[in-house]
Write a structure and sequence with these properties.
- With 363 residues, this protein is of the alpha/beta class.
- The protein has two domains: 129 residues, Rossmann fold (3-Layer(aba) Sandwich); 138 residues, Rossmann fold (3-Layer(aba) Sandwich).
- Helix content is 41%, strand content 18%.
- It is built from eleven helices and 13 strands.
- The strands form two sheets. Strands 2-1-3-4-5-11-13 form a seven-stranded mixed beta sheet, sandwiched between helices. Strands 7-6-8-9-10-12 form a six-stranded mixed beta sheet, sandwiched between helices.
- The chain starts with a helix and ends in a 7-residue tail after the last strand.
- The N terminus is likely disordered.
């Protein structure tokens, strides 16, 4: 009996020693799987980690030879950089053919996402559609295309902008004459460009519909260029003795028109209206050199936000229309920021906008 107890005690002591030395005790239960570390990286909808820095993103710009367009491209690049994405920008040089070739070259070289601001909706539709049909996500900003072959379109409503200018003009002329009447000269953008067509149509249609006694006595393309606008405005001033309103399609043109008007000594005769809401334009309002502009976002902030969501496999609205805003002496100080080209890039969070699932161009 004593021998059996001694043997049992020795066996027990050996087991205790083995456990103390780290030897696994026999266990028929399966070991739990080790927990996986959670990486704070972007994830697609299928759970795979996305390395955004490795993706190829391109922005096909209409032209870089125009301050607003050049600034838009700079904003796009800097906004993508916030997410670690390098964006390559191409220059369409104001030509639909060149911009189309740029898109085709980027697609042929491999592209994970295309961002584009078309020179002309119809002319760029085939190239943009081809990229989209090839499986490349497409984000249009500022200007769209004539089909639904895109992933997301972020823009302001240029028709609405034209109408807003017409309403503002009518209000001021009513204050001056007791009714909405007067003479208007228009300095358009680039002939045939989507922005030019839509802003012009919105303005003229609103006048015809609601203010038939406000007459457009002259209208001419100024190419969004201040030197061209200055020359055209000089011609208008020599030709017409009675001008109540000057409406230009962009602040860049407006600054040239202002110089011509100031040189003529006729500033007090007319109100000067514009579009874009650049810092230079807002400063001109504060200085009394211009009377109003409509803030027109370049859509770089929200456009890049949507692009990154798409790259991460997230769903986005098909169409985002950002509300335009009239800036005049009543609120110009609020939007003036010294040392910047414009208030852009403005995030979607800081904008008022409307989302919709589908978009069909009115152009």
């Amino acid at each position: 009996m004593k021998t059996k107890l001694t043997a049992l005690l020795l066996t027990l002591l050996m087991c205790m020693a083995l456990v103390a030395c780290g030897q696994p005790a026999e266990n028929n239960d399966p070991a739990p799987a080790p927990s996986q570390p959670q990486t704070p990286a972007e994830n697609s909808s299928d759970g795979e980690t996305k390395d955004l820095a490795s993706l190829k993103v391109g922005f096909a710009q209409d032209t870089l030879n125009q301050p607003w367009r050049s600034n838009q491209a700079d904003c796009v690049v800097s906004e993508f950089a916030k997410y670690g994405v390098t964006c390559t920008v191409t220059d369409g040089q104001g030509s639909a053919e060149t911009q189309t070739a740029n898109i085709e070259d980027m697609v042929a070289g491999g592209l994970d996402l295309l961002m584009v601001s078309p020179a002309q909706e119809a002319a760029l539709t085939p190239a943009v559609s081809a990229a989209y049909q090839a499986g490349i996500p497409v984000v249009c900003i500022d200007r769209g295309i004539t089909s639904n072959d895109f992933s997301c379109y972020v823009h302001a409503d240029n028709y609405a902008i034209g109408g807003m200018v017409a309403d503002w003009v009518a209000e001021k002329l009513t204050e001056k004459y007791g009714e909405a009447q007067g003479n208007v000269v228009v300095l358009e953008g680039v002939a045939g460009a989507t922005t030019t067509v839509q802003r012009g149509t919105g303005f003229t249609e609103r006048l015809k519909e609601a203010y038939p006694n406000i007459k457009i006595i002259a209208s001419q393309p100024a190419d969004f260029n201040r030197a061209t606008a200055m020359t055209i405005m000089e011609d208008f001033l020599q030709t017409y003795d009675n001008i109540d309103i000057v409406f230009t399609h962009a602040d860049e043109s407006t600054m040239g028109a202002i110089l011509a008007i100031e040189n003529s000594g006729r500033r007090d005769e007319m109100l000067i209206c514009s579009v874009n809401g650049t810092t230079e334009g807002i400063e001109a309002i504060l200085d009394g050199r211009m009377d109003m502009t409509v803030m027109y976002t370049n859509a770089s902030g929200p456009g890049v936000e949507m692009a990154v969501k798409i790259l991460n496999g997230e769903s986005v609205p098909k169409n985002i229309t950002i509300d335009p805003l009239v800036i005049d002496t009543s609120n110009a100080q609020e939007y003036y920021t010294e040392g910047t080209y414009s208030p852009d890039p403005i995030s979607l969070e800081n904008s008022t906008y409307v989302e919709s699932d589908t978009y069909i161009t009115e152009g």
